[in-house]
Structures are given as structure tokens and as C-alpha cells.
Amino acid sequence: MKKIIYFTLAVIAMGITAACSSDDNPNESVNPIIPPAKEIISKTESNLTFIIKNKEGRFTGDATNKVIVEIIDNIDSQNTVFNNTRMGITMHMTMANGHKMSHSAPITQLKPIQGTTNVFEGELMFTMAGTEPGVNYWVLEIETQTKGQTIKTKIDLMVYPRGESELKTLQKFQYNGNTYLIAMHEIEHIKVGDNSFLLSVYQSDNHGAEFPYAKDFTIEIDPRMPTMANHGVGKILPPLQYSSATEKYEGIITFNMTGYWYINLLVKNNANEIIAGQFVEADSQINSDFYFEVDF
Hints:
This protein is mainly beta. The chain has one helix spanning 2-24; strands at 38-45, 48-54, 59-60, 63-73, 83-94, 100-103, 107-112, 119-126, 137-146, 149-157, 159-160, 170-175, 178-184, 193-203, 218-224, 241-243, 248-255, 260-268, 274-276, 291-295. The protein has two domains: 38-160, Macroglobulin (MG2) domain (Immunoglobulin-like, Sandwich); 170-295, S-adenosyl-L-methionine-dependent methyltransferases. The strands form five sheets. The protein has a five-stranded antiparallel β-sheet with strand order 1-2-4-8-7, with no helix packed on it. The longest helix has 23 residues, at 2-24. This is YtkA-like protein.
């Protein structure tokens, strides 16, 4: 009887220990899924190396760019815990007369990739190209905390003009004297049928130094296939609505075949007035000049 009691207590104790270990280290049981990416640039600051990468292996202006930031401790290889990791971007420009100016651009702030504490992903909405180091260029600023220390770094970036073959993912419009940017976020696991569709709208404030979310609009989308008689998807898609939880405009986009899609955009104010984009008739061969593109 004593042996049975001792064995039972031992099993319970092992279960408690295992549960505590799991709670203290929630990432240990999760296999991280890090998207395939090519290194763009890296920089060592103090004892840390910051590696910047994305799927394309470069950044493009006038576009939404995904970014992955990996942080490596060069002294303590066992240290993979980095907290409060954040980023910001600044464009530095030198005018023909030598006058210098700077502005920022919208971003989706870094967050850890599930199962990791040293690999982060976010988005950079570069509003223009910058390929002249020291003259016209972008700077990526990253801050992180580890072992009780806060470490900051600045990395000069090359941001290339968007090529003709690269898809349109960032637009700009004016309303009531303000400038707004609208960004399309990547459609994850895109497929024929219904897909989750997310857009963000930002208002340019303080001469382009700040980009708060703009929430007072309604966005309508009309996907067309220009290479297939400009046909649509056979139905009217519900307007995207702003979500205060995600600070994005959320909805569903439908594709009824694979290929190149031209997504006509209509932005309306609270009075249901069109403030950006043009309505496209069902049988029209001409699309709006305010649009996004998808190809899969």
C-alpha cells in the first residue's frame, strides 16, 4: 500500500513540475514557423547583431513591404530573449539647394513570430524610393531590451523604385486638406474563393512625422481581371469596415480563378460620398485609377 501511495505522489509531483515548466516557457512547445526570407542587410550594435530580411531580399518604395528582424547575441548564444522590440523609419532628403528635410512613413509594428523571442515581423510602407546614401535615403531604427539593457541601432536602407512588374500595394488620397495613405496587407494563404482582406488607412500628421490610423471611412472593393474581358467575381462584395480591435478595415475578397487581379477601390466618408476612386460599371473595360493588384 505504501509503495502505491508513494508512486501516486511521485506521478502527481511530476505532473505539477511539467505543468509549471510549460507555463513558465510557453514558447518551448511551439515550433516556430519562420517565413522564407533573404537577408537584406545586417548591423552589429554592442554585442548584438540585427539581421534585416524579407521574401524579396530588397525594399521597394511606394509599396507595403514585409520585414523580418532577427536578433543574435554574439557573446551569449543561449540568450534568445528580447523584449519590447520596436522599430521606426525616417526618410532623409537633401534638396538641390542643400536644404535637408526628413519625414516618416506608416509601419506595422514588430511582433515576435510565434514560438520565438528573437525573430520579429512587421511591415514598412515606404512612401518613396531612396537609393542615394547620405543624400536621399531611409533609416530603420530598432530598439530592444535584453538582460536589463536597452539597445538601439540605426540602419541605413536602400529602397528601390517600384518596378512595372511589382504589384501596387500602397495608395494616397487627399480629403479635407489632409493626406491619407491606404495600405494593402498581404493576403495570407490566398486561394480561389473567399479570402480575408485587410487594409489600413493612415492620416499624415505633423508634416509626415506621424501616421495615426484613420477610422471614419468605408471602403468598397471591386476585383476585376483585365486579361479576361475585365470580368468581376459575379457578386457585389460587402464594404470593408473599420475594426477598433485591429485598427484595420476588414472584409472578404473573392477570387473565382487564379491569375492577375485588379482591385478597384472606392473610399467613402460618413455621408456616403466618394472621396477617392471611381465607380466601375459591371460591363466596363476601363478600371479606376485608384486600385491595388494581386497575382496568384
